[in-house]
Amino acid sequence: MTDFAAARERMVERQLRRRGIGDERVLAAMEEVPREAFLPAALRDRAYEDSALPIAAEQTISQPWIVAAICQALELEGSELVLEVGTGSGYSAAVLARLASHVVSVERHEPLSREAAEALTALGVRNVEIVLGDGSLGVPERAPFDAIAVHATAPAAPPALIAQLTDGGRLVVPISTGREADTLTLVRREGDKVETTDLGPCRFVPLIGEEGFSG
After folding, report:
1. Which of 26, 80, 105, 157 could, after both became Cys, cross-link 146 (CB 3.0–4.6 A)?
2. How many CA within 13 A on the CB side of residue 170?
3. Is 113 designated active site?
4. Are 57 and 113 in contact (CB under 8 A)?
5. Are strands 145-150 and 182-190 parallel, antiparallel or unpaired?
6. 210 domain residue, yes or no
7. Cβ contact 187:194 at 8 Å
8. CA 44 – CA 35 distance, rounded (Å)
9. Of the candidates 60, 212, 202, 188, which has an alpha carbon nearest to the alpha carbon of residue 138?
10. Which helix (H) or strand (E) covers residue 167, if one does?
11. What is the domain range of residue 128?
């Protein structure tokens, strides 16, 4: 039997802290959320590998370091309204739920949204709201958002998402480079100005939608 708690602790120390994740709130959240609860039974023993893993609908659950890096870049303090694009398994939403006040998470695959909701409910996560739809367009009726996390690669930062940020809001989105690796990118909105910072290479499934890639 895998000792998941011990594996999770090792993951935080070896994969996250030693590789530049220094936000203690993020590290604590990553140690609290059981990644195995968001995986198919056959993959649970691999929950704390340093890699993405496959889930249903040809999607993936992100590498732990990527989830932590996105959360750290969002600079969450606990009071924020966060938009997540790409619910997937619900794992990242569970981490964000421990770092922010409320999370609105958009998923385009209905079975994935249902399974994620079930997993979150089973863990007692009450501050995540899952919406079925085109995540590239955000959820304008719930905007503005203090932070937006996108878990799929876009051709560029979607203008609809930038428009839904508060003044001072942060968006983290993988941007396609046309090469093997994408670039994880931080977008910060300051009034009418938008500043971008490259956070490093990454690899995600494509963002399918009106302001993403065509399906």
Report:
1. 80
2. 15
3. no
4. no
5. unpaired
6. no
7. yes
8. 8
9. 212
10. strand 165-175
11. 4-202
Helix (H, G, I), strand (E, B) or coil at 151: coil
Whichever domain contains 11, its CATH number is 3.40.50.150
At a CB cut-off of 8 Å and minimum separation 6, what does 7 contact?
47, 48
Domain count across the chain = 1
**Residue carrying the six token digits 């993959």:** 43
Write down the catalytic residue from 51, 62, 89, 105.
Answer: 62
* Res 161: pLDDT: 98
Q: Which of 109, 71, 72, 111 is nearest to 92 (CA)?
A: 71
Token duo for residue 34? 């059981």
10-residue averages of pLDDT along the chain (215 residues): 93 97 98 97 95 93 96 98 98 98 98 97 98 97 98 97 98 92 96 94 94 91
Tell me the residue type at 153. T
Residue 166 is predicted with a pLDDT of: 98
Burial class (CB in 10 A: 0-12, 13-18, 19+), 51: middle
20: left (phi over 0), alpha (psi -120 to 50) or beta: left
